[in-house]
Amino acid sequence: xxxxxxxxxxxxxxxxxxxxxxxxxxxxxxxxxxxxxxxxxxxxxxxxxxxxxxxxxxxxxxxxxxxxxxxxxxxxxxxxxxxxxxxxxxxxxxxxxxxxxxxxxxxxxxxxxxxxxxxxxxxxxxxxxxxxxxxxxxxxxxxxxxxxxxxxxxxxxxxxxxxxxxxxxxxxxxxxxxxxxxxxxxxxxxxxxxxxxxxxxxxxxxxxxxxxxxxxxxxxxxxxxxxxxxxxxxxxxxxxxxxxxxxxxxxxxxxxxxxxxxxxxxxxxxxxxxxxxxxxxxxxxxxxxxxxxxxxxxxxxxxxxxxxxxxxxxxxxxxxxxxxxxxxxxxxxxxxxxxxxxxxxxxxxxxxxxxxxxxxxxxxxxxxxxxxxxxxxxxxxxxxxxxxxxxxxxxxxxxxxxxxxxxxxxxxxxxxxxxxxxxxxxxxxxxxxxxxxxxxxxxxxxxxxx
Length: 450
Ligand SMILES: *Cc1c(COP(=O)(O)O)cnc(C)c1O
Hints:
By secondary structure, the chain is an alpha/beta fold. The chain has 2 domains: 31-61 and 361-447, Aspartate Aminotransferase, domain 1, CATH 3.90.1150; 69-342, Type I PLP-dependent aspartate aminotransferase-like (Major domain) (Aspartate Aminotransferase, domain 2, 3-Layer(aba) Sandwich), CATH 3.40.640.
């Protein structure tokens, strides 16, 4: 038996994997990874895979990056963890200073959680609590856009809208107001992204006008609806939304968990709309893909609404055990150093145009409905009928066929349903992009036959 196989057997005897129908592994081999180096992952039989999805969108500077490794090792010999209630430490202070400095003006305070979903939960509670502290307890509902994704705990599922994840748990979810998304995939022929997203804003404006007295916040993913199938929209929507939230007295929460740290072409997606949200949540690439952590940034104005004598009970008493873990902070600091030293955002422009060029030919593919891109994310939507954009039935699992082909070739592509996407680490080379496009094209050819 191969070494991969041995590890697989041991795994399947005791593990239950995320986002997986475990029965699939009767026929689809699980891949035990022995080591990671740069963009490559290597299994126990010595086969290598190019990590084109950045290990679930987290790893931006490669596996076992020497600079991040070194920083964590140094931190490990100083302080591995300390309670953050009543105590503090250098990495968490430095990181908070740098995040405040790096994010748009008006985000002044940082709160930490230990994963993306928890970061969203913190934010929903903070917004809700803010309005109570301000004597407006009626403002307690959340407005979201369709096809959004904010995590998979119960409150994050409630503000999300990807049926595959939410439907089963519907009875457990709080009631939210959902507005049609500004997603540009189904825009009418000849209409620009900007015009489409602007038109779609009317639903949002109307909803806020009618409901603002009971709305605490609008929450959405800026520019890119990731788990919803890498759907994209124009920054104008966010610009208009900021104005409307100010006008109607509603918080704007931007979930930058997937978009933050350069993914959409700017350091943060909201920069492209020239706005500052009331709350911004960061996670995923925050630690370079090393350790779980989320940062919630908000304004002094929000912070001040909680600042009072203890017995007023206005404090935000939310706590996660590993809040502000020093090792995670060290990984994040090393990640920010790389951004500062290597001019990453500028260099990514070349890689982004390379991704566009390498996949240009797929626009004419008979079973591709759209090739779309925002910065360092490129998505190819396979369809049954190109003219009407009728999707393939999900039961056919066409994306899985692309996955299998890519794995054979040594590339980790993990389509979302019928959407094949590249979301690579920023250390990818132009040659690797060309090769990836070739593998994806073959995979799409195979998957769309018959
Ligand atoms: C991944 C993701 C989350 C959830 O983060 P977890 O760490 O998996 O809980 C929330 N929002 C967005 C936009 C994400 O992409």
